[in-house]
Write a structure and sequence with these properties.
single chain; mainly beta; Elongation Factor Tu (Ef-tu), domain 3; two-stranded antiparallel ribbon; 1 helix
C-alpha cells in the first residue's frame, strides 16, 4: 500500500488583502439600491459532504470520495438603509440577475444569484439602523438557460 506523500507549504503567489474596506456588492437589476454596506461577506465555496465508498471489503477504515459538484455559498450584507429601500427590495427579491462583489483592491467576483432576504434590525436610540441582506448564488444564467460559474477579475499585481 502506498503512503500519502508529504507536501511542504510554499510561499503563495499574488497579493493578500490587507483591509476589507471598502467591499461593496451590486445587483445588475438595481445597481443604485438605497442601502450602504457596513459589512460584506462574499460567497464561499462548499464541496459538500463526502460520498461514503466503504464496502464489506474494507478492513480498518471507512473510505470516502469527494463529490463532483461545488456550491457557491450565500453572500451576506449588513447595511444602513433608506426606509424607501423597501419598495426596491420587493422588486429585487427572488429575481435572478448578475451580482458583483467588489473587493477593497478593486478585484471583482461576479455570479448569477438573487436577493433571498432583507431583514431590518431593531431601531435603537444612539445606533445607526441596519438590515441583514442575504444573496443566494444560483450559478445559472437565466437568459441563456445554462450553468454559469462565478467569474473573478483580478486587478493588476494580484
Amino acid at each position: 500500500m502506498a503512503a500519502p506523500s508529504t507536501t511542504v507549504r510554499q510561499t503563495p503567489a499574488g497579493a493578500r488583502l490587507t483591509d476589507g474596506f471598502p467591499t461593496k456588492i451590486a445587483f445588475s437589476r438595481d445597481p443604485d439600491i438605497s442601502f450602504w454596506e457596513t459589512e460584506v461577506t462574499p460567497p464561499g465555496i462548499d464541496g459538500g459532504d463526502a460520498v461514503e465508498t466503504s464496502t464489506m471489503f474494507n478492513t480498518d477504515w471507512r473510505t470516502m470520495a469527494p463529490r463532483r459538484l461545488k456550491t457557491l455559498t450565500d453572500a451576506t450584507i449588513t447595511a444602513a438603509y433608506d426606509p424607501n429601500v423597501f419598495n426596491q427590495l420587493v422588486e429585487l427579491c427572488n429575481e435572478e440577475g448578475s451580482v458583483t462583489v467588489t473587493f477593497s483592491d478593486g478585484s471583482t467576483l461576479s455570479f448569477y444569484g438573487y436577493l433571498k432576504m432583507a431583514e431590518p434590525g431593531a431601531c435603537v436610540e444612539g445606533e445607526m439602523p441596519t438590515m441583514e441582506i442575504t444573496v443566494v448564488p444560483t450559478n445559472y444564467d437565466p437568459t441563456n438557460k445554462v450553468e454559469a460559474a462565478p467569474v473573478l477579475v483580478s486587478v493588476s499585481g494580484t
